[in-house]
């Protein structure tokens, strides 16, 4: 057996915590000397203590832990709870990283404006373009990415598909319940429908020609694209143009990095020159 001090060092927990667990009946010593009050533990109790500490780190209350311990919770069950918690934490980390990248992009955009740096907007004519696309309402941009992957996977293996594109048909910017069209540019004059999940179909259509399209290329994840929209907005007003249609996003390079930092997107805004009365 071990004294409480020895057990504390072996288990890497404080004696104060061990005394508290004894008081509430969560982890009682195998023997307590009636004369001295000294507590003694054995090596078998390390397994029980590890169960308690693992459940505690998973965010459970001591009351919940006591119920689970009394119910003889297995290591496999704790492992399952751990994997769920791990997935939740990793998802939160990704959300936090995306938020940080978005803030960084906004700060850079402010620096850009303050320094009066030139904005590399290119004005060009865009001819009518054949596309194979699906239009649906998605819950979030994350759901949109999943649908994009499904779209690409569903395409027949033919060398006729160009860049990916998307158009947000919502009347204003939205993060949820987005009216989104996505698909691929085509090099052919027709294409049969392609079945997706949930009864959706990729269908052939033609994007209309645009006489004047203000275009701007952005590199970075989706959370940084807003900086490109700001630059186009600034450029159009500075040069006497105004927006006359829905913007398009053309994926010039699909991301390979996990954080999407190598994504290259061309933002396209239909514009027309403002004529003063």
UniProtKB/TrEMBL annotation:
Gene3D superfamilies: 1.10.1660.10, Regulatory factor, effector binding domain
Pfam families the record matches: MerR_1
Keyword line: DNA-binding
GO molecular function: DNA binding; DNA-binding transcription factor activity
PROSITE patterns: HTH_MERR_1, HTH_MERR_2
Domain of life, per lineage: Bacteria
Record-annotated HTH merR-type domain positions: 1-71
Protein name: MerR family transcriptional regulator
